[in-house]
């Protein structure tokens, strides 16, 4: 079997075009979705993600503000800034780019952002809402993955979804969203014994470990749906995923590439959440 490739880049573009129209309409009603991104320090990967967020916001018409702060910023300074943004009317979404310098407590920062402006979906209130099957801001990468599956009319219900990786940003929440869609979910991680046994059973395999070509075609079930969340830099300086694409493509029914796969969807769902937050704020969500 040769898999159909799911290009997140194409889905992201069509969703952004729709959002652009929606934002134009909202602006005629005096509603301007506003996002503030905070970047601390000089991490090159974080800088590049943040640049992507700025460009996409501009395209869609979201009013995006980037605050860059030095590595030496204290936790108190950051928390004070978040309190200010929580109280600022024009800001509907606050995103603090992770990871943070070691002297800042990440969880404290996440819990200081108002759940109503937590467009990352990382606040315990929003995680709790997601876990109980309520509408909320869903974490962007997992939410993007669900959109990619749905865009291809892939039935999730009853499928065995195996998640490799248990981060708070991707692994744990994507398992929860798949469970909400009635999948049977297995989490694998660095302490899992005989991981191959689980991988070979996966109807839907989500790989988010950050190890170049951790999964190969030999490992996966015929017809599996393979979602590669990894972004790894090769020795040659190009980007590659956690899945060996060429061999996996010959076994899978659907597969996502790296780049042009999950990555563009993450930013798209951030914009979606920001627009949703603005609509909730102005009482026009679900009209
Ligand atoms: N760092 C890597 N991914 C993310 C994300 O989705 N949100 C934030 N805030 N930081 C990240």
UniProtKB/TrEMBL annotation:
Q: What organism is recorded for this protein?
A: Gracilibacillus oryzae
Chloroplast found in the keyword field: no
Q: Which reaction does it catalyse?
A: (6R)-5,10-methenyltetrahydrofolate + H2O = (6R)-10-formyltetrahydrofolate + H(+); (6R)-5,10-methylene-5,6,7,8-tetrahydrofolate + NADP(+) = (6R)-5,10-methenyltetrahydrofolate + NADPH
Classify the source by domain of life.
Bacteria
**Binding, NADP(+):** 165-167, 231
Q: Which residues form the Tetrahydrofolate dehydrogenase/cyclohydrolase NAD(P)-binding domain?
A: 139-281
Domain Tetrahydrofolate dehydrogenase/cyclohydrolase catalytic: from-to ranges? 6-120
Query: What name does the UniProt record give this protein?
Result: Bifunctional protein FolD
């Amino acid at each position: 079997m040769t898999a159909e490739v799911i290009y997140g880049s194409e889905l992201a573009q069509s969703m952004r075009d729709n959002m652009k129209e929606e934002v134009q309409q909202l602006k005629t009603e005096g509603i301007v979705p506003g996002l503030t991104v905070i970047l601390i320090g000089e991490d090159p990967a974080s800088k590049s993600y943040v640049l992507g967020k700025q460009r996409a916001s501009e395209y869609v018409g979201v009013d995006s503000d980037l605050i860059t702060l030095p590595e030496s910023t204290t936790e108190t300074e950051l928390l004070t800034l978040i309190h200010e943004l929580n109280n600022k009317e024009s800001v509907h979404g606050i995103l603090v780019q992770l990871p943070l310098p070691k002297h800042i407590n990440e969880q404290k920062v996440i819990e200081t952002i108002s759940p109503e402006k937590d467009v990352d979906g990382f606040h315990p209130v929003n995680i709790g809402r997601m876990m109980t099957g309520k509408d909320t801001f869903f974490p962007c990468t997992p939410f993007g993955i669900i959109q990619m599956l749905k865009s291809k009319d892939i039935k999730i219900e009853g499928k065995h979804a195996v998640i490799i990786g248990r981060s708070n940003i991707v692994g744990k929440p994507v398992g929860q969203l798949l469970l909400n869609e009635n999948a049977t979910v297995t989490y694998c991680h660095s302490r899992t014994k005989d991981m191959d046994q689980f991988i070979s059973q996966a109807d839907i395999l989500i790989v988010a470990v950050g190890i170049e070509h951790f999964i190969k075609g030999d490992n996966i079930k015929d017809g599996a749906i393979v979602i590669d969340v990894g972004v790894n830099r090769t020795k040659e300086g190009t980007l590659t995923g956690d899945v060996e694409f060429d061999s996996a493509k010959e076994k899978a029914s659907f597969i996502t590439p790296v780049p042009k796969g999950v990555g563009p969807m993450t930013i798209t769902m951030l914009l979606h959440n920001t627009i949703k937050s603005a609509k909730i704020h102005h009482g026009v969500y679900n009209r």
